[in-house]
Design brief:
Elements (H helix, E strand, L loop, with lengths): L5 E4 L5 H12 L3 E6 L3 H13 L4 E5 L8 H12 L4 E4 L14 H25 L5 E5 L12 H21 L5 E7 L6 H4 L3 H10 L8 H12 L10 E4 L5
Parallel strand pairs: 1-2, 1-4, 2-3, 4-5, 5-6, 6-7
Helix pairs in contact: 1-2, 1-8, 4-5
Length: 244
């Protein structure tokens, strides 16, 4: 990948976001590593990228606050001269039957998963350089409508809809917009909290016979961010080892 590309990865101090930031950094992309509270974890990601010869900077922001998002783009501009790649990775999930879900649960899912992604996409549509990339991390759960996951599923499905619409709206600038739908992934809060019995069941149901790893998702994102993916836009890329 070109050495002059710049990426902003939200929620990149741990889990899938961390793997994405480190993979893009290894590919020669300058990375804005974002975090909400864990400055030490973000600093470790920056240090690893720099130790491998890359460039990175950490930036704190609560992306559920729409006023905080433009500042992250400012960091990319001030630190590296612009922005080419936006990866919307921040997400949250609370699971309960819809009959038991609260208004607070609804607001949490749609503020964190949907509105934060929308605000960053809107800013990217205005500020990404020609030929840029927007990659949204959705979830394979949108294919299953699993009980207790109604709000989480709805908030992620909305991301996929925004993805398809924006791909058509900004394609004239050669900016591609895609969603990646991970399955249950080890090394994430969701994946690490799966009970052992359910984990075995999930692996049995997955044709490739294992749970996903953050690096599996990072490799797909790196491809979509590359010039080789220039003809792919408006797509939802299933990344669950064949489970969905």
């Amino acid at each position: 990948m070109s050495q002059d590309k710049v990426a902003l990865v939200t929620g990149s101090s741990r889990g899938i976001g961390r793997a994405i930031a480190e993979r893009l950094g290894a590919d020669g992309v300058s990375v804005v590593v974002t975090y909400r509270t864990d400055a030490d974890a973000a600093a470790k990601v920056v240090a690893k990228i720099e130790a491998n010869g890359g460039r990175a900077v950490a930036a704190a922001a609560d992306v559920t606050d729409p006023q905080a998002v433009p500042g992250l783009f400012d960091v990319a501009q001030e630190s590296f001269g612009g922005l080419d790649i936006l990866v919307n990775n921040v997400g949250v999930g609370r699971f309960a039957p819809l009959a038991m879900a609260t208004d607070e649960d609804f607001d949490l899912h749609f503020a964190t998963n949907t509105r934060a992604t929308f605000v960053a996409m809107r800013e990217a549509a205005r500020r990404l350089r020609e030929g840029g990339r927007i990659i949204n991390i959705s979830s394979g759960i949108v294919t299953s409508n699993r009980p207790t996951a109604g709000l989480y599923t709805a908030s992620k499905a909305a991301i996929d809809s925004l993805t398809r619409t924006m791909a058509k709206e900004i394609g004239a600038r050669h900016v591609t917009v895609n969603s990646v739908l991970p399955g249950v992934t080890a090394g994430t809060e969701e994946g690490d909290n799966v009970p052992a019995e359910l984990k075995q069941q999930l692996m049995f149901q997955t044709p490739l016979g294992r749970m996903g790893e953050p690096e599996d998702i990072a490799d797909i994102v790196a491809f979509l961010a590359s010039d080789q993916a220039r003809w792919i836009t408006g797509q939802t890329v299933h990344a669950g080892g064949g489970m969905f």
